[in-house]
Design brief:
The chain has 196 residues and is of the alpha/beta class. It has one domain: Rossmann fold (3-Layer(aba) Sandwich), CATH 3.40.50. The protein has a 5-stranded parallel β-sheet, with helices on both faces. The chain is globular and about 45 Å long. Keywords: ATP-binding, Kinase, Nucleotide-binding, Transferase. It catalyses: D-gluconate + ATP = 6-phospho-D-gluconate + ADP + H(+). Belongs to the gluconokinase GntK/GntV family. This is Gluconokinase. InterPro entries: P-loop_NTPase, Therm_gnt_kin.
């Protein structure tokens, strides 16, 4: 069964860095969510303007489409054994429950704009959301040190306010406390989660 691993959290939590390391460890496909933001979104974030749901929906639907494309490629590839586990690693802030639902197609917005429910069932995959948690002071430190990213650090508070944290009932969402840990330690924790 194909497994989508979504590394989620606010900007600066290490999604891209851990995502690349995890991709190497799993020999998996990698989708860097930030690469698919439309130019309008990038410009707003550079200017310190928070994104609205209307801004985010086309981006999230695009990510959902990419997952379906990958799922189709696995399904149609003769070299992939059906018994062999396959992974897609994706980075995406996925701050709210409804955003996470769009990514996996469990939402009216994504299913009406991408494929029918029948088509969705043909591309079954399981999903695990991995929330990378850091204290605010560490997030601020990282964002201040980061020069090459379009995200304006002034938006951190908005992201933290928007974030809907995992609850005990969240069976497909796992929280990892990343503070003070080396990248390999975090990757190892994720590997333990996906083996469960």
């Amino acid at each position: 069964m194909l497994t989508l691993l979504v590394l989620m959290g606010v900007s600066g939590c290490g999604k891209s860095t851990i995502g690349k390391d995890l991709t190497l460890a799993l020999n998996s496909d990698f989708i860097e969510g930030d690469d698919y933001h439309p130019p309008e979104n990038v410009q707003k974030m550079k200017q310190g303007i928070p994104l609205t749901d209307t801004d985010r929906y086309p981006w999230l639907i695009k990510l959902h489409s990419l997952v379906l494309e990958k799922a189709n490629s696995y399904k149609n590839s003769e070299k992939n054994s059906p018994e062999q586990l396959k992974y897609i690693v994706m980075t995406c802030s996925a701050l709210r429950i409804k955003y996470r639902q769009i990514i996996i197609g469990d939402n009216q917005i994504s299913t009406t704009n991408v494929e029918s429910d029948a088509d969705q069932k043909e591309n079954q995959f399981q999903t695990k959301f991995i929330y990378l948690e850091l204290p605010k002071h560490e997030l601020v430190r990282r964002l201040e040190a980061r020069k090459s990213h379009f995200f304006n650090g002034s938006l951190l508070d908005t992201q933290l306010e928007t974030l809907e944290l995992p609850t005990e009932e969240s069976k497909d969402l796992f929280k990892i406390d990343c503070y003070g840990k080396k990248n390999q330690e975090i990757v190892n924790e994720i590997m333990n989660i996906i083996r469960q």
